[in-house]
Design brief:
The chain is mainly beta. It has three helices and 16 strands. This is DUF3108 domain-containing protein.
Length: about 260
């Protein structure tokens, strides 16, 4: 495991958006108090856990109220002994547009350490971080804000095979991320049976993924639109991310035992 281990985890749950459709988005899927907890398994072993929280905040940017998003990941079990990880990502997003104003990351993965503080100026397409000023896209996200924004994209008319692309800032550069809609599928999880929308994000072969690796992501086919499972083959074995607990949802839980 390298530092990309937890980037993979959060990329698995930061999934779909389309630049042409980023205007006029309003929040209909979440509210403060929501908490999602995931388990990441390497084969049959639970390697890590991740939590996503929406917190109330009195902070304002440009006089506008924000949501405070917190994403955290940590290794567990024997993985925590041999490769200890404690990662935290914070994002402050506009309550109306859901676009980020401020993003911070505090990464601790074995001997690797990284901190960053990034300020987004969306109207100027400018991003200012610890390591300089960068040119953004028309709408640019961090990993946490991308996840919550994407949950509010209207997929009612999405066709099978339709591809979506988003732009996010990570590790001092703006990157595009593309994902294709596969269709609807009902899956069984530890929380129960869930009706889902299935996607296949584009991945790059390299130090983690095989040349022919396929990544699949399932999100709830309801108003909550939360990821419940992701699965991908890596160079040695496979990695599965699954929702373990959801509380504070805006709408009733989308599963039945």
């Amino acid at each position: 495991m390298k530092q990309r281990f937890f980037l993979l985890l959060f990329l698995l749950i930061s999934f779909y958006a389309r630049p042409q459709e980023l205007d006029n988005i309003s929040n209909t899927s979440f509210e403060p108090g929501e908490k999602l907890r995931y388990k990441l398994k390497y084969g049959f072993l639970t390697a890590a856990e991740a939590t996503l929280d929406v917190l109330k905040s009195d902070t304002k940017f440009d006089g506008k109220p924000v949501y405070h998003l917190v994403a955290q990941g940590k290794t567990s079990g024997s993985f925590d002994i041999f490769y200890k990880v404690r990662d935290r990502y914070d994002s402050y997003i506009d309550q109306s547009t859901l676009l980020p104003y401020l993003y911070t990351e505090n990464i601790r993965e074995a001997s690797y350490k990284r901190t960053d503080k990034v300020r987004f100026y969306q109207s100027e397409r400018k991003i200012v971080g610890n390591r300089g000023t960068f040119r953004g896209a028309a709408k640019t996200f961090d990993l946490a804000s991308a996840f919550y924004f994407a949950r509010n994209i209207d997929l009612a008319g999405a066709r099978v095979g339709k591809a979506f692309t988003m732009s996010y800032f990570l590790k001092d550069e703006v990157t595009d991320f593309t994902i294709a809609y596969i269709g609807k599928e009902q899956i069984k999880t530890q929380l129960g049976v869930i009706n889902c929308l299935k996607f296949s994000p584009q991945i790059q072969p390299g130090r983690i993924f095989k040349k022919d690796s396929k990544l699949y992501l399932w999100i709830t086919d309801d108003k909550n639109r939360i990821p419940v499972k992701a699965q991908v083959e890596i160079l040695v074995g496979s990695v599965t991310l699954e929702l373990a607990e959801a509380s504070g949802l805006k709408y009733p839980a989308p599963y039945s035992k």
